[in-house]
Recover the amino acids of this structure.
């Protein structure tokens, strides 16, 4: 496995400035780059590169000259949003990103599954987390049968035809938020859809990450290295579903943290081992969303721990094999 970086933490820098900054972090070998949507597109001109093969080649060559590859293009959005104009915008972004990934030979596009409303009349997404009252179960069935599966059947085929895999970031608030929902959608729409596994979105739900990795297996297309710290005093009183602002850090049940500031090295070693057992040998893409650490502090901390966790060379074959 290789270390990568999800670049929105440097959205204030141009591409050239980003590449200069990354010389401070020689352990980073791959970049996950936003093409629009929530990650933004500070380092990539999606429209320009789609319009000009020369511009696309120049972009990739610039990264290669810096000793970097592209692990994924990311376009997090909600392509099944109940407002058609938002759904259409995010679907168009996804399809353009897939086309660019095909053009510049990037194997993975990362996004969200999205979340529709609870009925055809809704204008606001409705994340359903309980089976009762009965209208909740009815609305959930409608979401999957009438919106999610039909949309992703078409989008999955589009990606498959382009030779690109779509890695859905399992994230609470969207219909795909845990391993079960990833595998449910994948079974319905095809194997070109899998997961961008971000432990930080699963830990606070009470999920054991190595167990989740074992269940997901070949459905793991990409991996975000991000941590979570649980505030036990708040969790023990209020549970883990927490709608307070991320600015109210001391009052929340959990906070996103840099790798190593929520879970220790042994836990990250368990994760790396589980990934190898599952056949994942790609990139751990560091995502910095730690309000308690500066960019330099959080990134350096994550690189330090993950460099110890990941084996640089493949394991030596055992004498009994």
């Amino acid at each position: 496995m290789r270390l990568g970086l999800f670049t929105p933490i440097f959205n204030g820098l141009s591409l050239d400035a980003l590449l200069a900054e990354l010389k401070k972090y020689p352990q980073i070998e791959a970049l996950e780059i936003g093409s629009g949507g929530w990650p933004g597109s500070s380092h990539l001109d999606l429209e320009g590169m789609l319009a000009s093969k020369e511009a696309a080649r120049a972009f990739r060559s610039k990264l290669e000259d810096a000793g970097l590859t592209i692990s994924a293009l990311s376009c997090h959005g909600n392509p099944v949003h109940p407002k058609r104009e938002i759904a259409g915008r995010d679907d168009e972004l996804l399809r353009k990103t897939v086309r660019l990934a095909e053009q510049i030979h990037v194997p993975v596009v990362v996004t969200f599954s999205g979340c529709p409303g609870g009925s055809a009349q809704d204008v606001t997404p409705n994340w359903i987390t309980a089976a009762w009252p009965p209208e909740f179960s009815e609305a959930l069935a409608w979401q999957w049968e009438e919106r999610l599966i039909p949309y992703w059947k078409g989008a999955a085929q589009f990606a498959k035809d382009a030779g690109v895999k779509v890695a859905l970031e399992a994230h609470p608030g969207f219909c795909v938020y845990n391993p079960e929902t990833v595998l449910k959608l994948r079974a319905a729409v095809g194997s070109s859809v899998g997961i961008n596994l971000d432990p930080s979105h699963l830990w606070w739900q009470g999920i054991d990450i190595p167990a989740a990795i074992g269940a997901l297996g070949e459905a793991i297309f990409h991996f975000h290295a991000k941590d979570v710290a649980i505030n036990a005093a708040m969790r023990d009183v209020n549970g883990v579903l927490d709608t307070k602002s991320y600015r109210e850090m001391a009052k929340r049940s959990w906070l996103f943290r840099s790798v190593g500031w929520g879970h220790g090295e042994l836990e990250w070693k368990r994760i790396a081992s589980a990934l190898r057992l599952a056949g994942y040998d790609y990139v751990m893409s560091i995502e910095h969303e730690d309000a308690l650490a500066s960019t330099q502090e959080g990134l350096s901390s994550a690189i330090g721990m993950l460099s110890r966790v990941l084996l640089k060379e493949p394991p030596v074959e055992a004498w009994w094999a």
About this structure: The two ends are 22 Å apart (CA to CA). The chain has one domain: 2-228+260-309. Residues 238 and 253 are 7 Å apart (CA to CA).
